[in-house]
Amino acid sequence: MSAVVVEVRDLRVTYPAGRTARPILDGVSFALREGECVALVGESGAGKSTVALALLGLLAWKSARAEGAVRWRGRPVDGKAWERLRGRAIGYVPQEPQAALNPYVRCGEHVRETLRLPRQVAADRVAELLRRVGLDPAVGSSFPHQVSGGMAQRLLLAAALANDPDLLLLDEPTAAVDQTTQARMLALVRQHVTQGNASALIITHDLSTAVGTCQRILVLHAGRLVEDAPTEELLRRPRHPYAAAWVAATEALARGA
Amino acid sequence: MGAAVVRTRLAHPAAWALVVVALVVAGPIGLDAARVLDDPVRPALDRRLEPPLHGSVLGTDHLGRDVLSRVVHGTVPTLASALLGLLAAAILGVAGALAAGFPAAGRWQRLPSWIAQGLLAWPGALTALVLVAVLGRGEWALVMAVVLQVWPDLQWTLEREVRALSAQPFVEAARALGYGPLRILTSELLPHLLPSVAILTLLHLRQSVMLVSTLAFLGLGPPPPTPTWGGMVAEGRPYLPDAWWPVVFPVVALSACLWFGGALARGLTARRAGGGSS
Amino acid sequence: MAREWLVADGVGVELRSPAGSKRILHDVHLSLQPGDAVALVGPSGIGKTTLARVLLGLVRPTSGDVRFLGCSVFCGSRACALEFRRSVQIVFQDPYLALNPCHTVERIVGEPLRLHGKARTPEEVRWRVRRLLEDVGLDPSLSTRRPGELSGGQRQRVNLARAVSVEPGLLVLDEPFSALDPVTTVDLVGWLRRLREQKGLGLLLITHDLQVVGWLADRTVELARGVLVERPEAPRSTSARPSGKSREQ
User: Fold this and answer.
1) Which residue of A has its CA nearest to B2?
2) Which partner for C110 in A99, B259, C29, C125 could form a disulfide, CB atoms 3.0-4.6 Å apart?
């Protein structure tokens, strides 16, 4: 079996008092291995994005209380180490692409910033990355409000791929884009994962994303990981009631089309 | 975050403000009733410029009046005009910002915005001088001076905020449901504005107390013998080489007041920054 | 041809920015009758949401007009405007931003009821709100909560309850399911289908997700290069994954 990139053990996350007393994540454990695309599915509000935050080491930033361990390549990670990992070894495409881009910074600059290269050297590299995600390099000189949500999402994917990350985190990468673009983005992710010995965690609602791209599906329900199974097996024999409902619903949607 | 949060955020400053107002108003009345203080107005020429702790706690001024009594009684004319002016400025600012910042605002609704911009470019002290010339010396001129000093800032900041809020989908949803402009302003926009209003007003508390005292020092406040802190400093200034106490104690009161206003604003902004995540 | 109901007549929209103006809609013609179920598809960023906002009278087009029952929605009479606001409702894509975080669910759903005279006394409003919440599959006890305490799926249900509370003839749905999990999506699609069959609710479904189109729409129009093109084939056959180059950019 290939090496584990990141491992989450017994993660329990609570937001400070005043909100819900119930933890947003409770006893979540899983591991992501090299060459693996994993889908994380579940109801909105089940805590999917919180898992992404935990893998970015950003829970403290949201003033959440976290217990449990996150281990990067077998070693525990602390504050300084997270800073070195983010943007280099971990590429992240957040859920709301347009909100994630600083409106005063040109699109190309967002990609260049993650590259951490001087302007003159970076130009070619930025153009290449933009072309790779299917964007015209001219987009680099426009401001975020001038591009569509789908373009912003591809821009963020370009930024996430910039430093050849070991772990790609994608939060609803396909919610704002049409199917052609979806297929293209996911192909890129798959290619990066298989060629670069990386791992990807894709948070999604979309069955075709989960089935077409991911070998394994994690089902999160009310803060607990209720399923962690290979895609085929989950589709054939879902064990948890929510997982069963999820499989039934996604299949019904696929049939409806 | 909901109205509950807004309410808890406001709870503390509002309670504090009430305490301050209660102290300002009830303090002198209570002390008067208890006959602890001497008359702040009637001269006692046989007790001129007595140092502190020689008969009276904080000494007496050049007309023999008790400094402690005058500092306490000076609280109302000084703070009341500042607080009243702030309150009026806040109300005007909210109303003006809602009118001018609303997307469908017509030319007349933009009027407060233009006036505010004009005032921002106009020296505040000059405005105060003109006001005194028009209204005469007294509390109302001070109140108006505070309003004209503070309101343009509030108008400017809140207007921007109203504009940003109006672009929010929930405001658009209200428009799509057919809510009238007035209902959108009061029920969709206003609740989101209140925390900012509270913070901005408190931030301006320092500035307006300072302004009121400065104007009183320049002799533009209520006419003598009404005690004001600024006026006491002005009256005591010629005797400063011989007697420091008629000048220093009003300044101490003023500083304490400014510090308190600053602390309140700091506390509130810290609460807002800390509790702002959703 | 029946009497015209909601009509977009040659709508063009130009967005101005410091970098220059960009024409996103050119000459859009669309006529809708109450009860129509139309899907509006097209690649992301093509202007579907802008067209929806124009149809709702929230954005004034640069050229052309939107008419409801013959009078323009931008300068119609007061009575006509209120009837338009009741008859055409919208549910936005993002369930998190479309609800005022300061208000309770009861107020959010009850306010339009009061405004459009569907319920008058407070008891009547409370009763209708509870019924509406049950209809969209929410526990009526949630009516005292605020949006911040609800999950994304629950919020989108509140959005739908508010939109159908005034019994509109047309419900514009702007990517209503993109933020929802499949279980919630299937549930809400089923509910919308029932509403369509029982009450003749019209739908304008804006989406790039062709999966749900076949379930909810009778015909499909596509927005391409600023104009609407009627899609001749049944929506069912469009589900095949488009391949080749992206149309966008």
Assistant:
1) A19
2) C125
SS (H, E, C) chain B: CCHHHHHHHHHHHHHHHHHHHHHHHHHHHHHHHCCCCCCCCCCCHHHCCCCCCCCCCCCECCCCCEHHHHHHHHHHHHHHHHHHHHHHHHHHHHHHHHHHHCCCCCCCCCHHHHHHHHHHCCCHHHHHHHHHHHHCCCHHHHHHHHHHHHHHHHHHHHHHHHHHHHCCHHHHHHHHCCCCHHHHHHHHHHHHHHHHHHHHHHHHHHHHHHHHHHHHHCCCCCCCCCCCHHHHHHHHHHHCCCCCHHHHHHHHHHHHHHHHHHHHHHHHHHHHHHCCCC
Percentage helix, strand, coil for chain A under 3-state DSSP, each rounded to 5: 40, 25, 30
A107 and A192 share one domain:
yes
In a 10 Å sphere around its CB, with 0-12 CB exposed, 13-18 middle and 19+ buried, how is residue C12 labelled?
middle
Residues 136-175 of B with CB under 8 A from C: 168-170, 172-175
Q: Are residues A133 and A180 in the same domain?
A: yes
- Domain end call among A176, A198, A220: A198
pLDDT (tens place) for every residue of chain A, 257 residues total:
688 899 999 988 887 654 555 788 888 999 999 999 999 988 877 788 889 888 988 877 766 778 888 899 888 888 788 888 888 889 998 887 777 888 888 888 888 888 877 777 888 889 999 998 888 888 888 888 888 777 888 899 999 998 889 999 998 877 667 777 888 889 999 999 988 789 999 998 777 778 888 999 999 988 889 999 999 898 888 888 988 888 888 888 777 64
Chain B CA closest to residue C104: B2
Please provide the DSSP assignment of A83-125 as one string.
HHHBTTTEEEE-S-TTTTS-TTS-HHHHHHHHHT--HHHHHHH
Structure tokens at C87: 């008859």
The answer to whether residues B203 and B93 touch, using CB atoms and an 8 Å cutoff, is: no
Q: Is residue A244 part of a domain?
A: no
* Nearest-by-Cβ selection for B175 from C58, C149, C159: C58
CB contact (8 A) between residue C101 and residue B1: yes
Task: Indicate if A111 and A178 belong to the same structural domain.
Answer: yes
Is the model more confident about C127 or about B278? C127
**Which residue ranges form the domains of chain B, and what is each CATH number?**
3-36+58-274 (1.10.3720.10)
Residue ranges of domains in chain C: 6-46+63-237
ipTM confidence score: 0.78
Q: Containing domain of residue A164, as a range? A: 98-198
The residue to which tokens 């910033």 are assigned: A113
Q: How many CB pairs under 8 A join B and C?
A: 68
Gap between the Cα atoms of C12 and A18, Å rounded: 48
Verify that A113 and A190 share a domain, yes or no.
yes
The whole-number pLDDT of residue B11 equals 52
Provide, as residue numbers in chain B, all residues whose Cβ is less than 8 Å from the Cβ of C94. Answer: 169
Instruction: Flag whether residue B277 sits within 8 Å of chain A, measured between CB atoms.
Output: yes
Single out the residue of C9, C41, C68, C31 nearest to residue C235, CA to CA.
C41
Q: Measured between CB atoms, which of A44, A135, A253 is closest to C186?
A: A253
A247 domain-assigned: no
Distances (CA, A) of A108 to A119, A120, A135: 10, 13, 11
Q: What is the CATH number of the domain that holds A155?
A: 3.40.50.300
Nearest to residue A147, comparing CAs of C249, C161, B29, B144?
C249
Query: Is A87 a domain residue?
Result: no
Predicted pLDDT at B43: 77
How many domains is chain A built from?
2
Do A68 and A121 share a domain, yes or no?
Answer: no
Distance from CA of B90 to the nearest CA of A (A): 30
Give C4's DSSP letter.
P
- Is position A248 within any domain? no
Fold of C6-46+63-237: Rossmann fold (3.40.50)
